[in-house]
User: Fold this.
Amino acid sequence: MNAETFNKKFDALIDKERSIRDAKRNDYTGSHSPFFAFERAGDSMNVSAGLAMLGRMIEKATRLQVLLQGTKSQVKDETIIDTAVDISIISKLIAIWWEDQTTLDHVTPKQHNADS
Assistant:
């Protein structure tokens, strides 16, 4: 694959991420914080939203590993590419969440949660 083709494919995936992000944000958070669903999940497990996101990413990565090893997917509406894109989106959510948390009073998320 040449660089031009690679760049087009890369840019197309970023566009796909934007579309999926917007749709899932609507479905999972409505008008709440972009982290709302993960905050609720974290609260229910007594962990941070960041760890809840990491758990979801690990679940997706495990699915990706199994499929890449040759297991035939039984979920027909989620391709390997869809799973890889989901992992990419979740990693961006974690990065944005972490940046936001560490700027709150210059404390780590664990310290911030303990002070709440």
The radius of gyration is 17 Å. The chain has a mean pLDDT of 89.
